[in-house]
Amino acid sequence: MNKIRLSLLTAGLTLSAAGFAHAHATFEKGSASAGETFNATLQVPHGCDGKATTEVRVRLPEGFVFAKPQPKPGWELEIIEGDYGNTYDNHGTKVSAGPVEIRWKGGNLPDAYYDTFVVRGKFAGFEKETVLAFPTTQLCGEDGKVVWDQVPAEGQDPHSLDQPAPTITITMAGGDDPHVGHGSLPQSAAETVKLGDLDISGGAVKAMLPGAKVGGGGFLVKNNGSVDDRLIAVESPAAGRVELHEMTMENDVMKMRKLDEGIAVPAGETVELKNGGLHLMFMEVEKPFAEGDTVPVTLTFEKAGKVEYVLPVGTAAGGAHSGHSHQ
């Protein structure tokens, strides 16, 4: 492997928002489209058992190509090059080698603060939805070390891992993604998505306050068929987990409960998920939803199957909840 070194002599500016000792190293944005040039922004939330981080190493997976890291004042930048597993087209030029690991070295990120490390690259060669892991290592002085390299086995909950590798989910820009159910196509925020006899529309998530970890949202689902269905699960790369909830008034007190059995969608009826009633709850949100963003979700119905949907972030529906009693 070849090594390219770039020393930065400018004084370091690493102070930002406080992190939590239990937080994982994650990407600011957890999904990207195949063929997209993407700024992968790694968030490093803490040091090694209280020690300051002095080096961050990120291994680049196959398919994240033509990478260019962003220099950081006060850190030396090392780019390790190697062979790709495949050959990629770069504006008519065939490329079979390039950066395979990025190292930011010689800095000083105190445990009390977090910082971001950015590398720009292109996701190339993907024909189906894929989750890419970027194994990451933090070094803290001579003997401190945290390794984020665990990848879940098939069917394993990634949140069960102690030191999961940061990941980015690559989605299809067209309609060939086998994870999109029954021929449904990815949609812009304003469109209606069809899944068998179901029409899904009107989605929205409410913007969250800085530092918030829980958000809410919803959408409309119309069952045009003659058979009842049920929404049984929702997943999103933007949250640690997504739960189905219902809010009700009891003795002038607003109470919220989790719906473990899902939400029924009777034949011939329209069900609305929104703040104040049935709704989605986004838990363990790493980056609070900001107005103008979008939140991708995978909806799973008992009979119709799975479909990808995109919720715009605004103030129209859903919302983060506070001050409610839980059963």
From TrEMBL:
Highest taxon in the source lineage: Bacteria
Alphabetically ordered keywords of this record: Signal
Residue ranges of domain YncI copper-binding in the record: 24-170
Secretion signal, residue range per the UniProt entry: 1-23
UniProt-recorded name of the protein: YncI copper-binding domain-containing protein
